[in-house]
Design brief:
single chain; alpha/beta; Arc Repressor Mutant, subunit A; D-Maltodextrin-Binding Protein, domain 2; 3 domains; two-stranded antiparallel ribbon; 10 strands; DNA-binding; transcription
Length: about 300
């Protein structure tokens, strides 16, 4: 048994396909297949059921793969400890961001992270909150920028900034004539909102007390914030955007923005990581770089704001 064999069975479980797993591990398919079979013979059990349509872990295979993930995670910490002891700002960091954060934060921090940490290779991805938390637990990412507390014992957070929700209102709506939005004036039938699972949507629905939000006129599945903004710009309904989106708007687009009346809904943006993540120097450098990238007034919860 060796670390390489463990990596092979983890990759095969991830892809459920020998060719894709081999490509992920940068080996040939026969090599991976042979090594997996050799591992099964060493253990005396079948780890996978093989058929023409899929490769599926057996019951005992699931248990062994879970243990393999823990072994790989622990083995990687050995080199990480050495790097951290040397205070080396180098290596690879796998970072995930929410789809309602990435489009507005990434253009600001990408170049700043490169300059602050020139020897660090970043691997960015966009994931929903639940996917971020699962990926952290699986050790398939190192850190995640999310808009909530993780509420998981093995994860920790560093608060980064606080971001208000802003209304984006078409000129055909009654709300357009007002300077601010009150929650009791939000009409669920006129809203364009992201699907369930996006915390941006879930937090707004809760704050506005839209217990059973359904757009009765039209529905739009798997829509994006950019799409909904375009709908509003053509005179159709209302949507909401995060505060960091505002500086990127044109003057014409800014005319459609309406803040909430007090209390204004706001979300806490956190840098989330595993409690056993050892590369604290890089972690702190990333957090400080992000804080420098956002307006100073967003670093603290402002008077009149309410966390959702």
């Amino acid at each position: 048994m060796n670390i390489q064999q463990l990596e092979y069975i983890i990759a095969l479980d991830k892809h459920r396909h020998f060719a894709k797993a081999a490509e992920d591990c940068n080996v040939t398919q026969p090599t991976l297949s042979t090594m997996v079979k050799k591992f099964e013979l060493e253990l005396g059990v079948d780890l996978f059921q093989r058929n023409r349509s899929a490769v599926i872990p057996t019951e005992i295979g699931v248990l062994i793969i879970d243990q393999a993930k823990r072994v790989i995670s622990e083995s990687r910490k050995i080199q990480a400890i050495v790097v951290e002891e040397e205070n080396s700002m180098s290596g690879r960091i796998r970072m995930a961001l929410l789809p309602t954060i990435a489009p507005y934060l990434m253009p600001v921090i990408s170049d700043m992270l490169t300059k602050a940490l020139p020897k660090v290779e970043f691997d960015f991805s966009e994931l929903l909150t639940s996917q971020c938390l699962q990926a952290l637990s699986d050790n398939s990412i190192d850190i995640a920028i999310i808009a909530s507390k993780s509420e998981m014992d093995d994860l920790k957070e560093i608060p980064l900034y606080y971001e208000q929700f802003l209304g984006y209102v078409s000129k055909n709506e009654a709300l357009f004539e007002q300077t601010s939005i009150r929650t009791n004036e939000v009409d669920g039938e006129r809203l364009w909102l992201l699907d369930e699972g996006h915390c941006f949507r879930d937090q707004l629905v809760k704050f506005c007390n839209l217990k059973s939000f359904v757009n009765k006129h039209n529905t739009y599945r798997h829509g994006s914030m950019a799409t909904f903004m375009s709908m509003v710009e053509t005179g159709q309904g209302v949507t909401f955007i995060p505060e960091l989106a505002y500086p990127r708007l044109s003057d014409a687009q800014k005319e459609l923005v309406r803040p909430f009346a007090i209390p204004r809904p706001s979300r806490e943006i956190n840098l989330c990581y595993r409690g056993d993540f050892v590369r604290q120097h890089i972690l702190n450098a990333i957090a400080e770089t992000i804080k420098k990238a956002v307006p100073e007034e967003m670093l603290q919860l402002r008077k009149g704001d309410q966390l959702v």
